[in-house]
Amino acid sequence: MIRFYFHPTPNPAKVALLLEEAAIPYVLVPVDTSKGEQHLPAFRAVNPNGKVPAIVDTEGPGGREARVFDSTAILLYLGDKLGRFVGTPADRPELLSWLLFIASGLGPFSGQAVHFQYAAPEGLDYAVRRYRREIERHYHVLDDHLAGREWITGKDYSIADMSAWGWLGRAVRVMKGSEDPLANFPNLKRLVQAIDARPAAARAKAVGKDHPFKTVNDEETKRALFPSNYPEQVK
């Protein structure tokens, strides 16, 4: 059984998609990051970095319980365990390259673009421009790669596509002010639409809908999400 620590944000969405695609039984454990639940000792025992997603696999290697944190690590762990959505051995170099391109570039730059456009103090125009331009650059890199390809690596749908979907599906928020942010990236748009059309994607989007996650952006939320801005509470 998988315990899936979740908040309705892009990185947990990737894992939700894989779990639904593979029909893996799991127990959802909501972690309300706006309330600071990611900093509680019980969750830090699962992910010392205090971030979602994370999983605990009660049937890990050798029958031992295994914890896995970071969305890319979880995708690789589950894909390898299942022997699904990881392509062929010949696909592995490309799969790892694009997974890490998303993990170290597309994802973090998307997150920073969201932060500086919605959460940071006004007047930081340089930061807004930098992250918006870097996102556009990353979009161009992946869009060019997808020209003439159905999926990111190999011939089949894989965890690389799921990983990209997590953030590309939030492009409207990442590219603030754009009603059609993928209009200039037709291959990315096609990829997102192809994944959205899968029944598992609809199920993944519904994960956690019945949990009352906090939506108010108040002082508690700011302290929970950006503790480094409050030196007195950083440990």
TrEMBL record:
Region entry Disordered, spans: 206-235
Transmembrane segments: none
CDD domains recorded: GST_N_Ure2p_like
Protein name: Glutathione S-transferase N-terminal domain-containing protein
Top-rank taxon: Bacteria
Pfam hit, one: GST_N_2
PANTHER family with a match to the protein in the record: DISULFIDE-BOND OXIDOREDUCTASE YFCG (PTHR44051:SF19), GLUTATHIONE S-TRANSFERASE-RELATED (PTHR44051)
Bias type Basic and acidic residues, positions: 207-223
GST N-terminal domain: residues covered: 1-86
Coiled coil feature spans: none
Ranges of residues in domain GST C-terminal: 88-216
